[in-house]
Give the backbone structure.
Amino acid sequence: MKKYFHIITVGNSIITNYQKHTGDETIKKLKTSSQEWKNLLSAPQFLNSIFNFLKENPRENSAEVNSFEGYCEKKEIKVNKENCLIYLTGTKTSVNEIAVRTLERYFREKVTLLNPKEISGYFWEKGIDEKIAVDEFSRGISELLDTLLKVAMKKKEEGYEVVFNPTGGMKPHVITCALAGFMTGSEIYYIHEEFEKKDIVILPPLLYLPRGREIELMKEIRKSGAISGYNYEKLKKEYREEIDRLLTYSIVEVDTDEQTGKEYRIRLTNKGKLVYTWLVNFL
């Protein structure tokens, strides 16, 4: 049985959608930074109300649910507690904690949940000191990347197919989540709030760090500028798997004869040259 591990960043789409539909004028006017959300965290009637709102139309009312369920539909995956594990990561703000708790209640009925990771959300710390807020936010982003890399690689070792969903959350969190996905060679999916609900975008592999024999191959190509003819055929026999992988990540490109369709030359792409220079200088 194939097992899936979804890392999902949580934004406030549930909250903003609820504010648009609620008849409570006080809640409608609350800003993200309002301390009133802290009081609402311990208000069962409100928490049940927002959960019921989510359940009425999950994909319409939550970007996180919409993207997750859209991805599963696209891949024709029937998720259950045995084959799907979800890791939610939000920010340390009262408003986002409400969103995370609401999603936990929703997902717990369908899949297994791993304890979420909270990082600095700026607004909570700003109430103490603005400089602390900035420092904590920056530190939180760094810690988030480290945590996501560790948990993703651990789950890969346990046999899970790891996928990242950076649809929700603040832009730095979205970027960090996507970067972790690229660095671990995982699939990344995304949906914009204005997309049709089934228009899931699976991002192409934009980042890959070559290793071992792949670096050897890149060194050989870089030394010559390009390798063609007999030397390319020889290279193909020795490095076939490495060439295929580097082609996948657009680190090398291969020229093909238009008439015969035969490959005859390989070179580093501009991206490949940049990656090779970085590997040589910093590793």
Summary: The chain has two domains: 3-202, 213-282. The chain has a mean pLDDT of 87.
